[in-house]
Design brief:
five-stranded antiparallel sheet; 1 helix; SH3 type barrels
Length: about 70
Amino acid sequence: MTAKTKAPEQTFEEVKYLRGLTDRRARVRIRLEGDSEVAGIIEFYDQNLIRLTREGEPNLFLYKHDIKYLWEEE
């Protein structure tokens, strides 16, 4: 019987994904915990926050723990 290895704490896939969206200036839609949605371009992110730049509306700083999920708009 072989010993099982423990899964890594961090895979850094989130960082790669957000960097790709930021570099391409891809338009994203974000669904928040209260089921409201916002859309824009991710200009900045760190461990806790995402800065979303929006056209014709105020830019937002969103806490990551308030985000259910996000996806790239077509």
